[in-house]
Every structure is written in structure tokens, then in C-alpha cells.
Amino acid sequence: MMGKVFVIGAGAWGAALGQAARAAGHEVRLVGRNAPAVDAINETHRLPSYLGDIVLDPALEAQIGVAGLEEADLVLMVVPAQATRETVAAIGPKRLAGKPVVLCAKGFEKGSNRRQSEILAQCAPDAEPFVLSGPSFAHDVALGKPTAVTLAGRAVERAEAVAALLAGPSFRPYASGDLTGVEMCGGLKNVYALGAGAIEGAGLGLSARSAFLARAFTEMGRVIVAHGGSEVTLAGLSGIGDLALSCTSPSSRNYAFGVALGEGGTVETIRERGLGLAEGVFTAPVALALAREKGVDAPLIEAVNLLLSGHAKIDTLVPMLMMRPLKREQ
């Protein structure tokens, strides 16, 4: 059934999800704050600064401001994780009251250590939270390439209803009732992608990277279960699916940033080179705090934090990890 979908955020991921919602048959409005980008979407049906020459659906409309949001049947919140609080506060709780809001950023809020759904609950307590996560790149979704993700809500039945709204010919959301677990996986995988990239950048070999990925999967499981998530989620798209993609693909911003770290760069010098900050840079210290809060042993998260802070280099971190006491795998 055709509905009205508002996508808050007109960057690469927002435009891609808007494209998917159009393919599912909905009326879609993208809300941006950059006038040239909004004009490009409306006039040329492209977003060259983010999506190159990919042609967007001509019926995809963009605007500045949230006029008409009251009529939305579904809201997709597609802003960076560190901007969610400010964005939701600017929209106001009344506009979002009673509406299903799908949170599409993968990361924790620096300072408060809050997940995205916790931020929404604070700023718009009457909105209904959902989380979209899984192995997906904006370019693939915008081009209509086959993509499967997880859509989680407080109740799996409601998640199924929202997933059905977004499902299209090439975009397949699987419903989950594990809001916490899916959200935790989405944030933590960014941290591990930094570490996997650093291993690649330091030239330590595919065996080392594969071992890191396997141990990251185990460590991530300890953290999410300690915070109330389900171990079953780990085996799904938002768990091993997204972790594998982010820890192996140069198209992952976090992986690419990690490669630069492994090559000897610092956070500051990498930014100066124009790569930009990856979400994992903000998430890493929060992930460490969350692990310590529950007494979870998380040596890989600790190593990534040491690397980011400049307190250790990859050539000293690897021996440190390799010399840890031997233990059973399970």
C-alpha cells in the first residue's frame, strides 16, 4: 500500500534509502540542509557529491525543512550518529509522536554513551523506534543492487509491518525483535572495521585479518549479550553479515580509515589528507566504556582505542595481543 515516507538526511545513505522507498511504491521526500544538493536532486535527479552519476527516481522530491512531516506514515532518520540528538530536538517531539521512526545511523553518542533508540526515547518519547542495520553500501542500494538488511523493533510483529513497507524488488528487510542487539552490532562493527583495516594497512596478511574478524565476532557477542541483546542476532545480517562486509571492503569508510592508521597515519594526519572522520572514531571510546561497564573482556576494542589515541602503534599492539594467555576457543 502506497504511503508517505520522510527521509531526514539527504546524503548518500538518505538518498539511497529514499530510492529504495520509491521502488517500494511510496511517495518520498528527502529532507536536506544543503541547498545545492536539494536543487540537484529536484532538477537533475542526481546527487553528484555523494552518488556520482547514479540517476535517482524523478519522483523523489527533496526539500529543506520538515514541512509536511505531520502527514508522514514512516520517518527514516538518516543523519550521522553524532547528529541524531540535535536533529530530533529540532524536529520536536510533537511532530514525531505516534510515528514509526527508523534509525539508520550505526553508532553510539559520544559523551552520553547512548544508543540511537535511547536518544530518540529521550527527545521524542512518543515516537516508535526501529533500527535498520546490515551489510549495505549506499551506492549498491541506489543502483538497485540486491541488498538484505535487518529491521528491528521492540516487537517483532511491528518490525514485520515496517519491513513490509520498505521491501522492494531489490531491497529485502528481515524483521527482528532484538532492538538492542541489532543496534549494538551496528555500532560495534565500525570499531572492528578500524582494526581490520589497520591490519591490512600494516601489511600483516590475510591470515591475521581473518583471525581478527573471527575473534571480533566472539568479542562482539560478549558485549551485546551483556547489554541485553540476543546471541542469535550475531549470526544474522546485522551481526556477521555487516561485520564481514565492513572488515573486508575498501568501500567501508571505517575500514579505509583503519588502513590509513595501519600505514602509520594518525587521526589528525588522516583528516588532513581529506579522508574525513569515520564513525568508528567516535564509537571506539564509547564501545570500550560499554564493555567495561559490564565487566566484559574486550582486548580488540581496547587495542583500537590505543591505536586511535596514538598511545600505541600497530607493530606493538599485535605482539601484545598474540602474547595474551592461551585459552579455549569456546
What name does CATH use for the topology of the largest domain? Answer: Rossmann fold
Report low-confidence residues grouped into runs of 5 or more. Answer: none
CATH architecture of the largest domain: 3-Layer(aba) Sandwich
Mean pLDDT: 95
CATH superfamily placement of the largest domain = NAD(P)-binding Rossmann-like Domain
Placed side by side, the strands forming the largest sheet appear as 3-2-1-4-5-6-7-8
**Approximate shape:** globular
Largest sheet: 8 strands, mixed
What is the rounded Rg?
Answer: 19 Å
Tally of separate helices: 16
Give a summary of the structure in a few sentences.
By secondary structure, the chain is an alpha/beta fold.
Describe the model.
The chain is an alpha/beta fold and 330 residues long. The protein has two domains: 4-177, Rossmann fold; 187-322, Orthogonal Bundle (N-(1-d-carboxylethyl)-l-norvaline Dehydrogenase, domain 2). The chain is 51% helix and 13% strand. It contains 16 helices and eight strands. Helix 4 (84-91) packs parallel to helix 6 and helix 9 packs parallel to helix 11 (237-246). The radius of gyration is 19 Å and the shape is globular.
